[in-house]
Design a protein that fits this description.
The chain is mostly helical. The protein is 62% helix and 1% strand. It contains 16 helices and two strands. Strands 1-2 form a two-stranded antiparallel ribbon. A hairpin with a 2-residue loop joins strand 1 and strand 2. Helix 9 packs across helix 10 and helix 10 packs antiparallel against helix 16. The longest helix is centred in the middle third of the chain and has 28 residues. The radius of gyration is 22 Å and the shape is globular. About 2% of the residues have low confidence.
């Protein structure tokens, strides 16, 4: 009994560290490594590097690159410390946050299978899934998941009560890969549940119309398309390193630079580039912003005091205070 309790405690404490070794986590070491490689590509293309390449030693260039990737002011910033503490506390205290995602997928799948059971004769028509079918299914799941995330993100920026919780993520004054986990539990629950439900519906449909079921391409339960996306500089999205894509590509895939613009305090950037992987949702909805050149970006939330988000307990409880304030305003309007 005591042994089981001890093992559970150790697992909870070490869980944040395990993210670095888990392929289904966004800060998996290999994703971070490929981000550093792409950062190197940005570094060698900078004017300063080209001007000094013949006048300084390789060791000095390596130090410059290290400082380029890990500037002291960013590592020492109060916002970075808050991100790290919030990440650890969230991972230790709320491991159950993945449950809504799994419930959403399972529940939606079972609901769809039950409803479509009356059309089971379709299974005899489609028969066994082929490799092409599985590829199409994998891509469809990717599109559906991404579309659901875009929809949720759009609502988080447009619906004031949801924005109160989403503020937590946008309150970061500097961006690091850990900032991706600066999400209020309510924010995570909403995104995970809606995406899980949408994916579950599609999964249930395909499992019904294929006689022997159908699988999709994944690693550790993560869609292969998402893993490919993580390899192409995902961790630079939350960083100071500006990596942009050509304009045409930026209309189909969200670049790290586009997501940095999304975090900008500039009112012209608010609610722009809401997509996770694909940019065509933004393109279709009119929320796409493709920077032509590097733009100076100041992070945070306009009209708020950064001190309001400088402690973990504030990140947890201030959104509820904000929602209560909004409800009071709504109530007064109704009474009038």
């Amino acid at each position: 009994m005591l042994s089981d309790a001890f093992d559970s405690t150790v697992l909870i404490i070490t869980e944040p560290l395990l993210y670095l070794t888990s392929v289904d986590q966004r800060v998996y070491w290999l994703y971070l490594l490929t981000a550093i490689v792409l950062a190197g590509w940005v570094f060698v293309r900078s004017p300063d590097f080209r001007d000094q390449t013949k006048t300084i030693s390789r060791f000095r260039r390596f130090l410059q690159f290290f400082e380029f990737c890990f500037p002291k002011h960013l590592l020492r910033h109060r916002s970075t410390r808050t991100d790290c503490v919030f990440f650890i506390v969230n991972r230790m205290a709320f491991p159950w946050l993945i449950a809504p995602l799994m419930v959403g997928i399972t529940g939606a799948s079972q609901l769809t299978v039950g409803f479509l059971g009356q059309f089971s004769f379709l299974a005899d028509m489609l028969g066994k899934a082929t490799t092409i079918d599985q590829i199409i299914f994998t891509l469809l799941l990717l599109f559906v998941m991404d579309g659901a995330i875009y929809f949720t993100h759009y609502m988080q920026h447009r619906f004031p009560p949801l924005w109160e919780f989403h503020k937590v993520h946008h309150s970061a004054e500097v961006l690091t890969p850990i900032t991706v986990y600066r999400m209020h539990p309510v924010d995570d629950l909403l995104s995970g549940s809606i995406a899980g439900f949408a994916v579950g519906l599609v999964t249930g449909l395909f499992q019904t119309i294929y006689a022997e079921g159908i699988g999709w391409y994944s690693v550790a339960g993560l869609n292969l398309g998402v893993i490919v996306f993580y390899f192409f500089g995902y961790n630079l999205r939350h960083s100071h390193i500006w990596l942009s894509y050509p304009p045409l590509v930026s209309h189909f895939f969200i670049s790290p630079a586009q997501h940095q613009v999304h975090h900008s305090m500039d009112p012209a950037h608010f609610g722009k580039n809401l997509g996770f992987i694909f940019a065509f949702w933004d393109w279709a909805a009119g929320t796409l912003y493709v920077p032509k050149t590097r733009e100076p970006v100041k992070y945070g939330i306009i009209g708020t005091d950064s001190k309001d988000f400088n402690a973990v307990w504030k990140l947890y409880f201030l959104p509820f205070k904000g929602v209560a304030r909004l409800l009071k305003v709504y109530k007064n309007r109704i009474e009038l």
